[in-house]
Amino acid sequence: NCSANLRSKEAEWCSQVEIMAEEINEYKLQLQRKEAALKEVELELENFHSSTAKMILEYEEISVMFLVLSRTVSEAQSRLANVKDEQIKDEKREEKSYSVLIEQR
Length: 105
Fold this sequence. Notes:
With about 100 residues, the chain is mainly alpha-helical. Helices cover about 100% and strands about 0% of the residues. It is rod-shaped and about 150 Å long.
């Protein structure tokens, strides 16, 4: 009777150990899948950081180019205004010279 009880308990424990071993294996598989998913997310995050850094550099380059372009346009406008002023002065001198020539006739 005692021996039968021990065998029964042993069989029960063996069954529980098998169930636990299966559960442990399932948990290991789940953990491996989650670790793989985590690595994918980490890689994606690295890519986002890299893209962000590149975009920041591009933005800074564009900002510098815009600043240079703005200054160039401003200088060109200033030169154009100077040329127009000189042209007006030249036209007035020519008109004056023309008037003097006409008066001398």
